[in-house]
Design goal:
283 residues; alpha/beta; Helicase, Ruva Protein, domain 3; 2 domains; seven-stranded mixed β-sheet; two-stranded antiparallel ribbon; elongated
């Protein structure tokens, strides 16, 4: 059972006392239902070892759940000074278990925070969610797991397969490095203020090795070119790479008439390797 702290005020009271109304500019949508925040925290378990990193805790609904469910140490990154002041009450309630880092999560190297095993658990601000994920994927091996909330349409892109309408660059870069599982949806009415879309909680775990051999920069380049004109055949869309397209496709073993959404991740990795060779950067 969760270990509830008797001295903490209700979240709505904390919000009122600190003038912590959500700001659209910060992508804030607060989740105040403690049953839901506990469900997210349980999805990230076990929490009893290492460091749990939270992004954008706001008034601290998910933070409370993580601490109640036994997180040994939580490091919460928050850029909103009003929320930092509100979270100070939680620091006092859970001495030596909660640290607040005031700053922009995009400027913080989460892979260096605390001691391993590290996990990230967050109701991500919608406006920076994809940028944060792409950054963490670069060092995915540094994390035991990522349990994250996205807009449902973004979550569906993370798990999309070839020939599906949601399959694209984000699908490939994510699945190349991580195993991805959609856990559950959260209705927009659960948030204050309600967003315009349903949210989905996703869990990502690092693969023991990338799905296929490739250099990330080359993989990003070929996927950007291919999906930048996804309706065109690859022999046309890949011209943006500045190499001989016919040779590129031949070396990768891909038909010139194929389109981006038809190619699986292994195929894009083959394109990335061939692209590096043609650019004279090695295999």
């Amino acid at each position: 059972m969760p270990e509830r702290h008797p001295g903490l005020a209700p979240l709505r009271e904390v919000i009122a006392r600190h003038g912590l109304q959500a700001r659209r500019s910060l992508g804030q949508h607060f989740l105040l239902d403690l049953n839901l925040t506990r469900r997210i925290a349980r999805a990230a378990a076990p929490l009893s070892e290492g460091t749990t990193i939270e992004i954008g805790p706001g008034p601290g609904g998910l933070t409370r759940a993580l601490l109640e469910l036994g997180a040994r140490r939580v490091i919460a990154i928050e850029r909103d000074g009003r929320a930092v002041a509100a979270l100070a009450e939680l620091v006092e309630a859970y001495p030596d278990r909660l640290e607040i880092v005031e700053g922009d999560a995009l400027a913080v190297d989460a892979a260096r925070l605390g001691s391993p095993p590290r996990r990230i658990v967050a109701n991500l601000p919608y406006n920076i969610a994809t940028a944060l994920l792409l950054r963490w994927l670069e060092r995915i091996e540094a994390f035991e797991s990522l349990t994250l909330m996205f807009q449902r349409e973004v979550a569906e892109r993370l798990v999309a397969r070839p020939r599906g309408k949601d399959y694209g660059r984000l699908s490939i870069i994510t699945q190349w490095r991580a195993e991805v599982e959609l856990l559950f949806n959260i209705a927009k009415e659960a948030f204050v203020p309600p967003p315009k879309v349903v949210s989905t909680v996703v869990r990502l775990k690092a693969r023991a090795a990338p799905l296929a051999e490739a250099e990330r920069g080359a993989l990003e380049a070929v996927t950007a070119a291919a999906f930048g004109q996804r309706r065109k055949m690859l022999r046309s869309s890949l011209k943006a790479l500045g190499v001989d397209t016919a040779t590129l496709l031949k070396q990768a073993g891909i038909a010139p008439s194929a389109r981006a959404e038809e190619i699986d991740i292994a195929g894009f990795c083959a394109l990335a390797r061939a692209y590096r060779e043609l650019k004279g950067e090695g295999a």
